[in-house]
Amino acid sequence: MTNDDNRGGPGAPRGWREATEAALYGPDGFYRSPEGPAGHFRTSVHASPLYAAAVARLLCRVDEVLGHPQEIAFVDMGAGRGELTTAVLAALPGDVAARVRAYAVERAERPAGLDPRVTWLPAPPAGVTGLLFANEWLDNVPVDVAEVDADGRARHVLVRDDGTEVLGGPVAGPDAAWLARWWSLDAEPGARAEIGRPRDEAWAAAVASLERGLAVAVDYAHDREARPPFGTLTGFRAGRETAPVPDGSCDITAHVALDACAGAGAALLTQRAALGALGVTGGRPPLSLASEDPAAYVRALTRAGEAAELTAPGGLGDFRWLLQPVGIPASAALLVDVADHEEE
Ligand SMILES: C[S@@+](CC[C@H](N)C(=O)[O-])C[C@H]1O[C@@H](n2cnc3c(N)ncnc32)[C@H](O)[C@@H]1O
């Protein structure tokens, strides 16, 4: 990286937040492309139908806590092409399915052929009661990046469209306050941080759209005690990790400071613990089943393999679930047996 803001070349340098906003959501942005996120990476939603089934069970628990209202909302925040919403609708028991109102909230256009029961919106519906679920949404809310310069000061990192960077002005105001509170930057030159303030605000706005119920954000995350010293900003293209270049050709993502997003009464769990509490475990079926009912054994083995992927240490199992209750008892009530599954 150079230290001077030399103009010219492939686009003038600008903050990572602005550059990412254009690269992901501009007219030719990465998330506008027809193949959608699933064309470039696998989330838990694509890994197995067990995931949507677990989310459907969580919706049923929320429904119970809310006293089975006449209408219960399922809001899929950052819905991709509506895959989770569609699968949750299919997995719900009849009595809940008859009362559910499904919303997919997305910046991309509604995909052709989507279940007509799904309402497609650019922002969450206001004042609904139910479950808002955001799987791998917050990591795609663009953020600015700070880097410590040779004199030990935190400066904004600016980026050109080809991915080359220069240092900009010092980090000040609310961004500096956010870093001081949530991500204290080592004075070592070159140390970097992603400034999570826009994500805190985006999450607070999504939570505020609920009248009553539970909001859940699931993402790869880090805690204040162990932030990555050089940040986690990276790119993904066609299933592979790549350099983050803000030209619309790749996803640009960074792990989420979910602890900074958490509001009063929130709980933070690993995906392994949350899915365990919702009945997804990776145990193999008994061998005796293989002789009694070979087809059932093969199905159970497939399920066990998928559950293992969703809960794998070092993989999807390490994702974090942020559970934020709104006007209902603390989230522990919804995942009653979670303590039995928490291994940390
Ligand atoms: C990584 S994808 C996840 C898709 C899906 N939830 C899944 O888990 O497969 C993130 C999605 O969030 C959408 N997104 C980002 N910011 C958004 C916003 N402010 N409102 C609605 N959707 C948004 C993107 O367009 C993208 O489709």
Automatic annotation (TrEMBL):
Fetch the Pfam families from UniProt.
Methyltransf_28 (PF02636)
Cite the InterPro entries for this sequence: NDUFAF7 (IPR003788), NDUFAF7_sf (IPR038375), SAM-dependent_MTases_sf (IPR029063)
Give the source species. Streptomyces huasconensis
Q: What is this protein called?
A: SAM-dependent methyltransferase
For this UniProt record, give its keywords in alphabetical order, as a comma-separated list.
Answer: Methyltransferase, Transferase
Extract one GO molecular function annotation from the record.
Answer: methyltransferase activity
Q: What top-level class of enzyme does the UniProt entry assign?
A: transferase
Q: Iron-sulfur among the record's keywords?
A: no
* A GO BP entry: methylation
Q: Which PANTHER family match?
A: PROTEIN ARGININE METHYLTRANSFERASE NDUFAF7, MITOCHONDRIAL
Q: Which domain of life is it from?
A: Bacteria
Keyword DNA-binding part of the UniProt annotation? no
Q: What is its EC number?
A: 2.1.1.-
Recorded hits in SUPFAM superfamilies, A to Z, give:
S-adenosyl-L-methionine-dependent methyltransferases
Q: Which residues cross the membrane?
A: none
